[in-house]
Amino acid sequence: MSLLGNIIWLVFGGFISGVGYIVGGLTICLTIIGIPFGLQAVKLGIATFTPFGRKIVEDEKANSTLTTIFNVIWLIFFGWEIALVHLIHGLILAITIIGLPFAKQHFKLMIIALLPFGRNLE
Question: Which residues cross the membrane (predicted)?
Answer without folding.
Answer: 7-35, 72-100
